């Protein structure tokens, strides 16, 4: 899955129109349309703003790993408890380094 395909999958998942996405990212609608029509990817200077608006890490957007695409199409009917919501909200606000550290810690906990 290309970066632009992931972006459009996330837009659909988040029920966000291209126009709304354009307004939030300050990227022209024609540029966004070109990604879809010409199957091109956004330039690197736009990635961080795109990730911020779509609430994903640059790693999640740029990774070629299939696990990322399965995350994008995840079931939306999952009910989270208060602690899970807090954890998820904090995770989304972490820097890439903090996310890596947390995932490493979780892996260590699973192994113990």
From TrEMBL:
Q: Name one GO cellular component term.
A: cytosol
Provide this UniProt record's keywords sorted from A to Z.
DNA-binding
Molecular function per GO: DNA binding; DNA-binding transcription factor activity
What SUPFAM superfamilies has UniProt attached to this entry?
lambda repressor-like DNA-binding domains
Report the residue ranges that make up the HTH cro/C1-type domain in this protein. Answer: 9-61
> Which CDD domains did the record assign?
HTH_XRE (cd00093)
Q: Name one Pfam family in it.
A: HTH_3
Q: What is this protein called?
A: Helix-turn-helix transcriptional regulator
Q: Which organism is it from?
A: Mediterraneibacter catenae
């Amino acid at each position: 899955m290309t970066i632009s395909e992931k972006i459009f999958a996330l837009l659909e998942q988040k029920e966000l129109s291209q126009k709304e996405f354009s307004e939030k990212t300050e990227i022209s609608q024609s540029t966004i349309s070109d990604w879809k029509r010409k199957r091109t990817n956004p330039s690197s200077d736009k990635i961080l703003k795109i990730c911020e608006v779509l609430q994903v890490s640059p790693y999640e957007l740029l990774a070629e790993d299939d696990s990322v695409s399965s995350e994008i199409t995840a079931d939306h009917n999952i009910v989270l408890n208060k602690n899970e919501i807090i954890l998820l909200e904090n995770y989304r606000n972490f820097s890439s380094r903090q996310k890596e550290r947390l995932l490493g810690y979780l892996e260590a906990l699973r192994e113990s």
